[in-house]
Amino acid sequence: MTHPLSKKYNCIIVEDEPIAAEILENFVSRDETLHLVAKCSDAVYAGSLLNRHDIDLMFLDLHLPVVKGFDFLKKLKKPPLVIVTTAYHQYAVEGYELDIVDYLMKPIPYDRFTKAVEKFKYLMNAEEALLEAADREHIFISSGKKQIKIVLHDIFFIESLREYIHIHTKMGTVTVKMPISRIEESLDPKMFARIHKSYIISKPKIEVRSASMIQVNGKKLPIGRTYKPSIEL
User: Fold this and answer.
1) Is residue 34 situated within a structural domain?
2) CB atoms < 10 A from the CB of 159, how many?
3) Are residues 119 and 14 in the same domain?
4) What CA–CA distance (Å, rounded) separates 38 from 168?
5) Are 103 and 147 members of one domain?
6) Which residues carry this modification: 4-aspartylphosphate (predicted)?
7) How much is the pTM?
8) pLDDT per residue as tens digits for the range 43-87
9) Residue-range definition of the domain harbouring residue 109
10) Exposed, middle or buried by CB within 10 Å (0-12, 13-18, 19+), for 119?
11) Residue 142 belongs to domain with CATH number
């Protein structure tokens, strides 16, 4: 029985520790859908690879020589999806401002690597969604042939990751391909507030708030600097 060729995703590894790079290369080689275009040890080389190749996924070590990982990411106009590899916990908070698929803490266990790659594949394959504002109590999101009804009172918060949004609700999380600005337009500002380029929260669901953070459903979400002046909670 022959299997149709599955889609291949081009990836690069940006890592300056040879052993860590080798481990990642080994993990990548075990996944038939991942095609390793190159390994590189600094951001300058990585930048030139991104210009020359169509890259879907970048494994990025944050502790690079010369230009640090996050500084490199901030400069990219159209970055690929990114899985961060780091030995330092504190970087995860800084990543709130950037669209990171997942964080892998070194030394990286193989099963944790596969979970991160599954997340990446899910995001690559999420269907384009169409939004239909119904009455003020719910919205319909059409994704492919499905119509997903989302009760507004069930929403905790909405999170953006590149062109996708995760709608976190009491019933679970719905992921669809749609800009966060598009769903924001259909939400009642009396009930929802945009607090960050990546987050919209439900005002009645706020549990804790401070000048820089809002907690919803046990999750601490940062308030973006540009949104502070306009937030009415």
Assistant:
1) yes
2) 20
3) yes
4) 36
5) no
6) 61
7) 0.73
8) 999 999 999 999 999 999 988 877 888 889 888 888 899 999 988
9) 9-125
10) middle
11) 2.40.50.1020
